[in-house]
Amino acid sequence: MSARPVSARTAAPPPPAAASRAGLVADAALALLAERGMRGLTHRAVDEAAGLPQGSTSNLARTRQALLELAVRRLADRDARLLALHEMPDPRHGLDSLVDALALATHRALTQHRELTLARYELALEATRRPELRAHFDSAGARFREQLGTLVTSMGSADPARHVLSLVAWADGLMFSCVAGSFHAEVPGLEEVRAGLREMLDGMLGI
């Protein structure tokens, strides 16, 4: 059975600059990972999905490892926009503002950006088998964890590292269950996600 076509932007003349082409290639790689899994990620497939001449991806990322690292970097950039790190609330605005921000980011990952979430799982599993990719994958998520740690500390957390782990694990578990697991057909609404996060944070911070 032939693979389904992958949605990706096509290059328009004139040829894109190096930075734009790298982004186009990385986006196509992420789309392929979500659509076809790790086995479907090849240099040729990325060229086809991105609408680029054959060999374009190899010119940017010569090896499979380089292509995976390019995808991880792009994932980190897109995650930063999805999580809206620049819009994270001021701790002085209280717990409700933090709950609202985290709930919105989590719900976006479950709905509008489901494909990006699937690609993240593919890359996370591959990183368990490729130590050289592990470092890139881990560092990509460090910025969010650090910012979340600062926020819960400012709100009175007695054990920020443990609380960040619990929050990230809760969100990851929810996303996996509702994107790829047994609740894939029962994606919660924004208010349900918000209620769950509020319960978590209430218990952690004793508010």
Helices and strands in order:
Elements: H1 18-36, H2 43-50, H3 56-60, H4 64-83, H5 95-110, H6 114-127, H7 131-154, H8 160-179, H9 190-205
Helix pairs in contact: 1-2, 1-4, 1-6, 4-6, 4-7, 5-9, 6-7, 7-8
What does this structure look like?
By secondary structure, the protein is mainly alpha-helical. It has nine helices and no strands. Helix 4 crosses helix 6 and helix 5 packs across helix 9. It is elongated and about 55 Å long. It starts with 17 loop residues before the first helix and ends with a helix. The N terminus is likely disordered.
Main attributes?
single chain; 0% strand; mainly alpha; disordered N terminus; 207 residues
Helix amount, in percent? 55-70%
- Major beta sheet summary: none
Q: Secondary-structure element order, as H and E?
A: HHHHHHHHH
What is the CA-based Rg, rounded?
19 Å
Principal-axis shape equals elongated
Beta strand %:
under 5%
Mean pLDDT: 86
Structural class: mainly alpha
Low-confidence stretches: 1-5, 7-16
Instruction: Count the E strands.
Output: 0
In whole angstroms, the N-to-C terminal distance is: 55 Å
How many helices? The count is 9
